Amino acid sequence: MEFLPAWPLTITPLSSFGLLLLIGSLGGYLAHRISWLPSITGFMLVGFLVGPSGLGLLTESVLKDSRILIDITLALILYRLGSSLDLRFLRQSPRLVVIALVESSLTFSAVFTVLWLFQIPLALAALIAAILVSSSPAVLLHVAHEVGAKGPVTETAKSLVALNNLLSFLAFAFVVPVLLAEQDASWQQILLQPLYLLLGSALLGGAIAYGLHFLTSRTQTAAQYKMALVVGALMLCLGLAQQLKLSALFAPLVVGIVVRSMERDEVVSALEFGSAFELFFIVLFVFAGANLHFAELVAFAPVIMVLVVARSMAKWFGVSVSSVLLGQTVRTGASSGLLLIPMAGLAIGLVQSSSQLVPEHAAVISAIVLGAVTVFETIGPPIASYAFRLAGETEAQASAALASNQPQHPWQAQGTVDVDLSALYAPEPEDAVPLVQAEPKRFKFWRW
């Protein structure tokens, strides 16, 4: 009976997407039942539980087949992050570039030094350090949405995360040739492959961004199609990047940056994806949790713990000190530095890219980076939530400030209030002149 399905049934990418959402939703629900546990941590815990290191419901082959879902998720997140970075604003405010360079350099140096002390090969240590420079746009956007954060610190943090993701990818592209040289690769592969990856992805992202800007600027009256145009452009960018063997991470980031920098009015860059955007966050973090391997986490646990401390201190210290030296308040610098501590999206993507470029080191890179991601995704959301409260930009704080600034009416005050009522019964002065009402004007349909 050929019309019957083959048995046993296999989990396809479509069914794995539904499974990731269902499992993640349960994890998020359980996390909300525990006041101190962030929802992202709940997503990763249930992902680890059903992954290969747990119950094995999601096998390695299923996770590999589901990779396209993560590529779509990262493309949307990185585009959304890139659209918060305006190159024209950076020219007018170069202090953000200075802060990003200081913070990224300090983070790279701290991570590289720790790995060198643990006797990790220098080229491999440099590659891991380049990956760990990146901060998590997913955590920043997710927690900001949860607490309703709005304000200068939130926007500054978005720009800094976009910049250090850009710097992380550039550092990654420059370190890859060193690892390829150690494997006796040809000079064409050593020099041309990273150059093709970097410049090709930038050109592809710029071309897609120009086409998107051209279409949206001529269809401004049809606002209902903006979302379709943006998602369609990103899916086209992702498909072409895979066919051309370019970076599916860097190209969407460039699309967002170029679109924002080309727009005179915020036609597309200010577009919000809405509640449906949360679905992709759930998929990303459940997938990240399912890719964790318990044995590797235990083996590299000392390195991971020291890296977490060193990276956190480097980012917080670099942003705080450089911000204060450039004229910002201590509170602004400290809260901005805390918002750069979480790490997830780009790091997960670069681990996958490095596994393809240098498969000999894939196990070590995955163990250290994904182990650090696990810790940062556990401590990152509460740190980000505290940073938003420290900056005073949460929705609850804004509502409280608005209520305290409203003038208080006499009937809202406690106790008795003396009100002058003399004007209600004061006698009319004797010399008052009676008001003569003027004769009303008449309207005429014609004029003589």
List its traits.
448 residues, mainly alpha, Na+/H+ antiporter like fold, 20 helices, 70% helix
Protein model, in words:
The protein has one domain (13-399): Up-down Bundle (Na+/H+ antiporter like fold), CATH 1.20.1530.20. The chain is 70% helix and 0% strand. With 448 residues, it is an all-alpha fold. It has helices at residues 13-33, 39-50, 60-65, 67-82, 87-92, 95-117, 122-132, 137-147, 152-182, 187-217, 226-243, 250-262, 277-290, 294-299, 301-325, 330-339, 345-357, 362-391, 395-405, 422-425. The model is unreliable at 441-448 (pLDDT under 50).
Q: What is the topology?
A:
Layout: H1 13-33, H2 39-50, H3 60-65, H4 67-82, H5 87-92, H6 95-117, H7 122-132, H8 137-147, H9 152-182, H10 187-217, H11 226-243, H12 250-262, H13 277-290, H14 294-299, H15 301-325, H16 330-339, H17 345-357, H18 362-391, H19 395-405, H20 422-425
Helix pairs in contact: 1-2, 1-13, 2-13, 2-18, 4-11, 4-12, 4-13, 6-7, 6-9, 6-15, 7-9, 8-9, 8-18, 9-10, 9-16, 9-17, 10-11, 10-12, 15-16, 15-18, 16-18, 17-18
Briefly characterize the structure.
With 448 residues, this protein is mainly α. Helix content is 70%, strand content 0%.
Task: Give the N-terminus to C-terminus distance in angstroms.
Answer: 100 Å
Averaging pLDDT over every residue, what do you get?
79
Per DSSP E runs of 2 or more residues, the count of β-strands stands at 0
Total individual domains: 1
Tell me, what's the shape?
A: globular
